[in-house]
Amino acid sequence: MKRLLLILWLLTAAAGSRISAAGRTELNQGWKFRQYGLGEWLPAAVPGTVHTDLLANGQIPDPFYGSSQSDLQWIDKTDWEYCCTFDAPELASYDNVRLVFEGVDCYADIRLNGELLHRTGNMFRTWKSDVKGLLKSRNNRLHVVFHSPVMQGLKNMAAYGGRLTANNDLGALGGLGPNKVSVFTRKSGYQYGWDLAPRYVTSGLWRPVALEAWNEARVEDFHVRTRSTGPRKAQMSASAALRTDAAGSYRIRILLNGKSILTADKTLDAGTHSIEEPFEIPSPRLWYPNGMGEPYLYDVELVLEKEGRELDRTAVRCGVRTVSLRCRDDADGRGRGFGFEINGIPVFCKGSNYVPADAFLPRISREKTEFLVRSAAQANMNMLRVWGGGTYESDDFYEMCDRYGIMVWQDFVFACNMYPGSAQIYADIRAEAEDNVRRLRNHPSLVLWCGNNEIDVAWKPHDKRNSRFRKFYTEEEAEQFDRVNETIFRNILPGVVDSLCGGTVPYWHSSPSPGWGLDTADRWRYGDVHNWDVWHKGDPISAYNTQIARFTSEYGLQSYPELSSVERFIPEGERRLASPSMTSHQGDRKKGDARMLEYVDRSYLRSDDFARTLYLSQLMQAEGMKTAMEAHRRNMPYCMGSLIWQLNDVWPCASWSGIDYYGRWKAMHYFVRKACEPVVVSPYIQGDTLDIFVVSDLRKPLRGVMKLTLTDFSGNELKSSSHPVTVGAAASQRALRYGVRDYLDGADPGNAVLVCEFRSDKTAYRALQYFETMKNAALPAAAVRIRAEKPDAATCRITVSSDKLAKNLTLHYKGTAGIFSDNYFDLLPGESRSVTLTAPEDAAEILRHIECMALNPETTIIKL
Ligand code: BMA
């Protein structure tokens, strides 16, 4: 009855609030904000940030447009206040009422009806308080004062007594001169500026605010874990925290997909109790990563009863799976392996790094999150690494990863810098870790907790002379950091993961791993590696073929977004390289555009045309990422993982992403989709050797025939041959090897392409190999024919064909390339290819607006 009353109250008093579950309502409506103590109150969004509230009220220009970043740095040096008023007439009938702030960014004094509830200072923690005695039936006032995170950061720094290396922090842009305050506050590092992000240090209630009310008893937390799996049964364990108002006899029931599978009676005192119940799932359907099997999810519910009455019920959607990280010596004795096993089966991890999908976290919609995770799955990826300079992502993100079979490597939010330590800081970090590990531990997709991003590789605890950071500190300070790092990354964080996940999720202390306690001379031999020899050091793209690690968890090349995206954030007169606005959207301040163009020049003839320059940057990046992904896969099982830097963007900019801020796939994402297919034919040339590999992630061997055809760019066949090829289950096989000069046998390398086609089980897998960089190739004048048809009202099928080789043909519809089912592909002479586009317009209208570009210096477009 009381639950019913609460629901009625939710529907009336809090009209407009989202009712997420019985007994809980979100207090996200009716908020106002202003600069602290000044001016009029304006409407505010919760969840939200000051920046986005100012934007919504027309008080500031779009923070992403042009060069506005530098004009908006005052916001983070200002104090702000938020308030809302609400009625709660029915809550009087509840014995327990709790107010929950799921995320407060960051230094806030929170008051309810004048009473101070919290002084917060960590955006990653959840803040709860019992408010039964404070609530009135009408006119409750919530008031939150946000202190400037930057001014508080300066105070924290002064109290700490010194600066800390924080290389990415753009303190100077923020008006702080050499002072870098990011590491003195538990906030997402990228907000303070990074080479992929602007500097927008936010404040706000960035996650929901909710009231929870109940009588007698409540299920506070529910965790379902897989202890072991087998074909006949899975051994599971359900644990929960129960809160009871009175001593008595309670019953818990566990339901699996709606069917009761366990009942247990408990005699409990008043208070909080931990219970754990083992149970079995006969003939379990396991959760598998994308490409390996179905990511099956079970609904598991816990019902708490007393004397036949239901008191509370909670549900989780989880998967049956085991995960282990293999770090042992392997057969070739070359060092320590690094690879994941899911349900006892080794899995090659193909994927990317995930960065926050917006500089303003609360405006990332569930749709955008789903689009990004789905795009990863569509590109045949099976892993995303949530990078430690970002955040612990939203529940939406992990739900999508569960559903699409994307394994998540989750960094704790520490990156690239040294952090302060003290008893108080450690307690805060422990609470943050507990909140987040507890929130995320039911997700089968989460397969690794990692202590931090790039701290060990900079600090090098066991290779002090080569440390990039130690030289900034005295020996005494350095020893102190050794202790801080040891405490946070070797003690607190793994301790929390172990105690809350019960051994079901591995922990890795730092990515990359320079080898804690091991010789660091040869970094390719063990652990995970971030390969920035290409890009930051300037090595050629071909170096990816030989720089093979056990697991490369970062590597990348920058590109620009396509023109239609650039038009959305760069004012008209500035759409050229090195304009002030373009420069403010290039985060790699030291090398940036120059490095990108250097890589473009190595392969392509540069153009004065802006749109073509953007296109060339994307091709260069796409070829690079394809080269690396295939090289890593060819070296399976020595190498068992390849994660591109980076999947997505924080804001519209030049960056290493494969999908731009507006959701347009760059050439890279199309190329990577191919390079990550379950079976790839992978030819490559090193010196005078041409190797042709077949790599398969399938769990059965493949037998077939490899047909090689060498043709010139006009379609004249120069030679062909066929070869039987067998590749084992989940294996990489060198199928054929030739000397390049012998193979070409006098053919012009600048006018020849080798078509490698492997046919097996009625499926054809194809790859093309060129013999010259494109700037030296004799790309012909090509006549490209385009047709448009409407198979149904929403879709348009575009068919393209070419008389000669059309290299990296790209289609744009109303200026946009990244919305086709395929793009940036090579069309062989005489070949025709169909791609689809979602567009309601009729075929003639679509055809009229289609534009087409290719690498060939001359391309004639014929619309049919
Ligand atoms: C890696 C990341 C980020 C950075 C990226 C590109 O090291 O961990 O710190 O944004 O490189 O430079």
Automatic annotation (TrEMBL):
<dbReference type="Pfam" id="PF22666">
    <property type="entry name" value="Glyco_hydro_2_N2"/>
</dbReference>
<keyword id="KW-0378">Hydrolase</keyword>
<comment type="subunit">
    <text>Homodimer.</text>
</comment>
<keyword id="KW-0964">Secreted</keyword>
<comment type="pathway">
    <text>Glycan metabolism; N-glycan degradation.</text>
</comment>
<comment type="similarity">
    <text>Belongs to the glycosyl hydrolase 2 family. Beta-mannosidase B subfamily.</text>
</comment>
<protein>
    <recommendedName>
        <fullName>Beta-mannosidase B</fullName>
        <ecNumber>3.2.1.25</ecNumber>
    </recommendedName>
</protein>
<dbReference type="InterPro" id="IPR036156">
    <property type="entry name" value="Beta-gal/glucu_dom_sf"/>
</dbReference>
<dbReference type="Pfam" id="PF17786">
    <property type="entry name" value="Mannosidase_ig"/>
</dbReference>
<dbReference type="InterPro" id="IPR006102">
    <property type="entry name" value="Ig-like_GH2"/>
</dbReference>
<dbReference type="InterPro" id="IPR041625">
    <property type="entry name" value="Beta-mannosidase_Ig"/>
</dbReference>
<dbReference type="InterPro" id="IPR041447">
    <property type="entry name" value="Mannosidase_ig"/>
</dbReference>
<keyword id="KW-0325">Glycoprotein</keyword>
<feature type="domain" description="Glycoside hydrolase family 2 immunoglobulin-like beta-sandwich">
    <location>
        <begin position="217"/>
        <end position="321"/>
    </location>
</feature>
<feature type="signal peptide">
    <location>
        <begin position="1"/>
        <end position="21"/>
    </location>
</feature>
<keyword id="KW-0732">Signal</keyword>
<dbReference type="Pfam" id="PF00703">
    <property type="entry name" value="Glyco_hydro_2"/>
</dbReference>
<dbReference type="InterPro" id="IPR054593">
    <property type="entry name" value="Beta-mannosidase-like_N2"/>
</dbReference>
<dbReference type="InterPro" id="IPR013783">
    <property type="entry name" value="Ig-like_fold"/>
</dbReference>
<feature type="domain" description="Mannosidase Ig/CBM-like">
    <location>
        <begin position="689"/>
        <end position="776"/>
    </location>
</feature>
<dbReference type="InterPro" id="IPR008979">
    <property type="entry name" value="Galactose-bd-like_sf"/>
</dbReference>
<dbReference type="InterPro" id="IPR017853">
    <property type="entry name" value="GH"/>
</dbReference>
<dbReference type="InterPro" id="IPR050887">
    <property type="entry name" value="Beta-mannosidase_GH2"/>
</dbReference>
<feature type="domain" description="Beta-mannosidase Ig-fold">
    <location>
        <begin position="792"/>
        <end position="850"/>
    </location>
</feature>
<dbReference type="Pfam" id="PF17753">
    <property type="entry name" value="Ig_mannosidase"/>
</dbReference>
<keyword id="KW-0326">Glycosidase</keyword>
<feature type="domain" description="Beta-mannosidase-like galactose-binding">
    <location>
        <begin position="31"/>
        <end position="207"/>
    </location>
</feature>
<dbReference type="GO" id="GO:0016787">
    <property type="term" value="F:hydrolase activity"/>
</dbReference>
